[in-house]
Amino acid sequence: MDCLHTRLLTWYDRHARNLPWRISPQDGKSGVVANPYHVWLSEVMLQQTTVATVKSYFEKFVRQWPTVEALAASEPDDVMKAWAGLGYYSRARNLKACADIVATQLGGRFPQSAAELQKLPGIGAYTSAAIAAIAFGHNEPVVDGNIERVSCRLRADDTPLPAAKANCRQFMEENSPDNRPGDFAQAMMDLGATICTPKSPACALCPLQSDCAAYKDGTQLQFPVKAAKKPKPTRIGAAFVAERDDGAIWLTKRPEKGLLGGMATVPTTAWTAAQNGETSSTAAPVEADWLHQGIIRHTFTHFHLELTVWSGKVETMAGEGWWSPQTAIASEALPTVFKKVIVAVRRDAFR
């Protein structure tokens, strides 16, 4: 029967992306099964992050921690260091917590059902469905950003996101085949990533062109419809790069809970997503000849941040923290915003 999923899977068999966490359609047909640890790890990393960025992080993680038991046995600080730069750092804390539970309470085996998977830290509705479908062959409705776009265009669904997600899940439930649900979900993802792209869809190459209501109407770029975004506020603060004569930089650790929790930082003033912090050198943690090094800008999910950067030569610091030598600074668990701060003072710090 020449139905939608048949056409899509025929296309996928020829054009599936080669991704380090994925088994190929050919391997799947020959009996090779996906590694649940790899599927889980990649899906957590891919939340709010692009495939191009995730590839190198995934490969580094599985080299360092080839199994969920190895990850569970790791030090939390080492996980945060390996995660640095991926953003949304609560994912890394949940990753470690989830690995601990799977390794110590579940015998190293991930639950197979979406409902059981959702009981684990950091695994929500989307991630549980993706793991259940891709790793275990359960017919669960997987809906990521690519699938939202493809599904909305196929149906010319003018319901604004995020409300349209329910319609997308229904589409996946109605069209996903029982025999290859994981491949169907990944085929929809690949179609959105390579053919049904946001701004320049290659409709002439699309295996689902004849099924697409938006293509027939010439309205592809109108979908998916997105609800108007609220403007992001801009917060301000200051960051202080304290340098010792030997080149070491003073770092502290942010509180475990909250924004950038558990990550390394240079001292800053008390800015948050809800309030501004002081910007002048009078708010520095110790007295020094602080030099103004400009302003760095960074965007978080809910706000923009502008940090005035100060640098100074300091031999003794107060409070908890450590001196990170020049040779070690690149391996610290520094989020991107604080790498920007340090680069404002030392341009070659992370080269």
Measured distance between first and last alpha carbons: 56 Å
Give the number of DSSP strands.
6
The residue-averaged pLDDT reads: 96
CATH superfamily of the largest domain: Hypothetical protein, domain 2
Topology pattern, helix = H, strand = E: HHHHHHHHHHHHHEEEEEEH
Strand content: 5-15%
CATH class of the largest domain: Mainly Alpha
Helical coverage, percent range:
25-40%
Count of separate structural domains: 2
Poorly predicted residue ranges: none
- Class of secondary structure makeup: alpha+beta
* Structural shape: globular
Main sheet strand line-up: 1-5-4
Number of helices: 14
Query: Could you say what the CATH topology of the largest domain is called?
Result: Endonuclease III, domain 1
Largest sheet: 3 strands, mixed
Annotated CATH architecture of the largest domain: Orthogonal Bundle
Give descriptors for this structure:
3-stranded antiparallel beta sheet, Endonuclease III, domain 1, 14 helices, about 40% helix, Nucleoside Triphosphate Pyrophosphohydrolase, alpha+beta
